């Protein structure tokens, strides 16, 4: 049985613990966080240890990690912790819900794929990607590393979502669209054309078009 330490002590960490505990044979043994963020010595009934010296408690030869962090700052915080964990020598676990439709196409490390996602054949998903509940990822699409796709998003066929993007609830990408890196697509937006890096895509009030502008870097 694989033994896992979850990075984080927030709501996403609590969800990760629930899913690993109930849907897999992997055993979560502890939580970790940066020393400055630890307020209690336990979380969900398990110990919390400082990430700065996690190797002393749970060496990478015997334990793996899961980074349970959200999309804040265009996923940069989750990306940084992922890279720190790799530098420490840890394998990063991926969770794919047994209630997702998934055909064994490539999925990277530290992915969090919730229930009722439809991932069609020939899709590729990079490292450190979160797919919240109920999305459609169309055939031959590519989701690059450090992306966060919230619920009921439609990514049509042959799309590319570049690194560190956020796709809001009920947003839709038409087929053959490329979303540039670090782009934020707002809830309910319909994206009909390619977007450059650092775009901010928002639906207008009429719902007939979207507004695309450069987001603050």
Structural commentary:
The model has no long low-confidence stretch (mean pLDDT 95). The strands form four sheets. The protein has an eight-stranded mixed sheet with strand order 6-8-11-14-17-20-22-23, covered by helices on one side. Strands 7-9-12-15-18-21 form a six-stranded parallel sheet, with no helix packed on it. A five-stranded mixed sheet has the order 3-4-2-1-5. The N and C termini lie far apart (43 Å). The chain is built from three helices and 23 strands. It has two domains: 3-87, Rossmann fold; 95-214, 3 Solenoid (UDP N-Acetylglucosamine Acyltransferase, domain 1). Helix content is 13%, strand content 30%. With 217 residues, it is an alpha/beta fold.
How many domains make up the coordinates? 2
Number of strands: 23
Q: Radius of gyration, rounded?
A: 18 Å
Describe the largest sheet: 8 strands, mixed
Q: What is the CATH H-level superfamily of the largest domain?
A: Hexapeptide repeat proteins
At the third CATH level, what is the topology name of the largest domain? UDP N-Acetylglucosamine Acyltransferase, domain 1
What percent strand? Answer: 25-35%
Structural class of the secondary structure composition?
Answer: alpha/beta
Brief write-up:
The chain is an alpha/beta fold.
Secondary structure layout:
Layout: E1 3-7, H1 11-23, E2 27-33, E3 42-43, E4 46-50, H2 54-57, E5 64-67, H3 76-87, E6 95-96, E7 101-102, E8 112-113, E9 118-119, E10 124-125, E11 130-131, E12 136-137, E13 142-143, E14 148-149, E15 154-155, E16 160-161, E17 166-167, E18 172-173, E19 178-179, E20 184-185, E21 190-191, E22 199-203, E23 210-214
Parallel strand pairs: 1-2, 1-5, 2-4, 6-8, 7-9, 8-11, 9-12, 10-13, 11-14, 12-15, 13-16, 14-17, 15-18, 16-19, 17-20, 18-21, 20-22
Antiparallel strand pairs: 3-4, 22-23
